[in-house]
Structure formats: structure tokens, C-alpha cells
Amino acid sequence: MNTKTAKIAKPRKNALVMFIHKMGSPPWFYNFTGKFIPWLWLIFGVLAAWGLYLGLVKGPADYLQGESVRIIYLHVPAAWMSMLIYSTMAVMAFIALVWRIRIVEILAMTSAPIGAAFTIVTLTAGSLWGRPTWGTYWVWDARLTSELVLLFLYLGVIGLYNAIDEPRKAARAACLLSLVGAVNLPIIHYSVKWWNTLHQGSSISLLGGSSIDASILWPMLIVAVAAKFFYAANLLTRARVKLLEQDMRKGWVRDVLKEKN
Amino acid sequence: MSHAPFIWAAYSIGAVVLLWCAVAPLVHKKSITRDIRRLIQIEESSRDSNS
Question: Residues A223, A75, A224, CA angle at the centre, nearest 5°?
Fold first, then answer.
């Protein structure tokens, strides 16, 4: 074999591939993510405080909705998060089912309680906005009902994951359920177009611009970005705790605890 | 109709739910860490009694 073919035969390791491989290792994942979590919480705190200050203190009341418009700084970012987290969970569930990567399995499963929390916030804030605006807390319209179904899907995933003793078997069953439940996402998104609903249609589009005034839009977008950092920080915290729980008899967990002492 | 009670209620419930969501894993971590330390103690004491 000449030197040219020897060079071709030797696989070159891409930095990104190396990083993904490293992230698959529980001790490496635990130590690496631990460094970022305080920064993620800090960015979340700063952005949330800034966005809410602009929206609640500086921002004007709406000419039609009055002061109740201030609820949308909570309701809309929470609603976006409820769908984004489910989409992320479904993608991770697919990866976990196909490639059987335990860290991804854990990340998918620890996403569910965070998604459920954001869905509860969406439904309660929306309901409290509906009473002064629509004159009712609840109607069984397509958008509200499909969002409630999303909450039940999250609760189903959490329940199924906790109902089976063997964690990997439990994760596989719950990942499958989360994949099936992903069919609800386009239903939530297009419900205001497909059916005649009390809930208004989309006011913001990625391509088509926004019909919301900038004084309301920007604080809402800042809170929406803050919510992403909340998700990232909370997800990594939960995943690290789940790793400790699953690997409590392994050497690396003992090393981590010894280092802390 | 005053909108203030609805705004306060929405933000209070939101704060409680998200705070619980953030604190729950930390509480769980504390109990897991306690369990692991107890496990290490049991293993070390059984190793000592065997030797």
C-alpha cells in the first residue's frame, strides 16, 4: 500500500462529529453542560426582566383590548414554547428511537414536564385574557381545544415514562407516544384557518411581517427569546439530575460527588 | 370592568408554575445526591466488615 492510499483510508475526525460523540458520554455531558447552566439562567433573567419592563411598565394599553393586552407578554411566548418544546421533543424522540442514544432519550423525556408547564401557563393566561376580552373564560373552539389536547399529550408522555420501571423501555414507549402526538401540532397551528374560531388568527408571520404595533411586538419577542433560555437551562438541569439518578451505581457519579466534597 | 385582577392572576399563576418547574429538579437532585451518599456509605461499611 502506498502512502497516498494510506492517507485516504485513515478517517478524518470532524470537530463537530467529535463534539457530538463526546456529548453522548454521560460524564462529559454532565461536566460540560454544568458550566453553561448558570449563564443560561442569567441571560433568561436579564431578557425576561427587560421584556416585561418594556411591556408592563413602558408599553401602552391597546386601543381595543385596553390593559388586558399586557397578558399577551406571557400568553403568546408561552404558547410558542408549548409547541416548540413538543416539536423538539418529537425530533429527539425520533433520534432516540432510531439511533438509541441514551442522552437524547433523556433530553426528550425531560422536555415533557417543561412543555406541560408552558402549556398550563398558556391555557390559564389565555383564559384570564378571554374573560375581559371575549366575556368568557373558555369556549370549546378548535385552537383552545387542540391546545388542551397538547397538555394531555404531555401528561400522557410523563405518565407513561413513569409507569414503566425499566427506564430505557419506558423512554422508548413514551418516545413513540410523543411521535404519534406530533400530529396535533399542525392542528393547533392551522386551527384558526381550518375552522371558524373565536380565537383570532395569526398576527405574526415569519415571512409576511406583523400586524402588531412595534411597542407591543418587541417586548413580546424579547420575552419569547428569554423563554428559550429558560427551556435550555431547565432542560439541561433536569437531564443532569436524570443522569445522576440512572447512573448512581457507576464510578463517574461517585467521582463527581467526591469532587464536590 | 377592571382588568388589573386578570393581569395579576395571569402573572401570579405563570410565576408559580414556572418557578415550580425550575425548582423541582433541584429538589430532586438533593434527594438523589443523599441516596447516592447513603449507598456509598453502605458499600464502604460492608467492604470494611468483609475485610
Answer: 20
> For A70-87, what is the mean pLDDT?
97
pTM as predicted: 0.92
Domain residue ranges of chain A, discontinuous segments joined by +: 32-202+213-260
Interfacial residues of A (vs B; Cβ cutoff 8 Å): 66-68, 70-71, 74-75, 78, 113-114, 117, 120-121, 124-125, 128-129, 131-132, 230, 233-234, 237-238, 240-241, 244-245, 248-249, 253-254, 257
B13 touches A at CB < 8 Å? yes
Determine contact, residues A164/A177, Cβ cutoff 8 Å: no
- State ipTM: 0.92
Q: Which residue has the cell 433568561?
A: A44
Judging contacts by C-beta atoms under 8 Å, the chain B residues touching residue A75 are: 10
Contact A249 B39 (CB under 8 A): yes
∠ CA A59-A65-A67 to the nearest 5 degrees? 45
pLDDT in tens, A119-163: 999 999 999 999 999 999 999 999 999 999 999 999 999 999 999
- Can you point out the beta strands (E) in A191-260? 204-205, 209-210
Give per-residue pLDDT as tens, A173-211.
999 999 999 999 999 999 999 998 889 888 877 777 788
Closest CA to A103 of A5, A224, A242, A210: A242
CB A151 within 8 A of CB A124: no
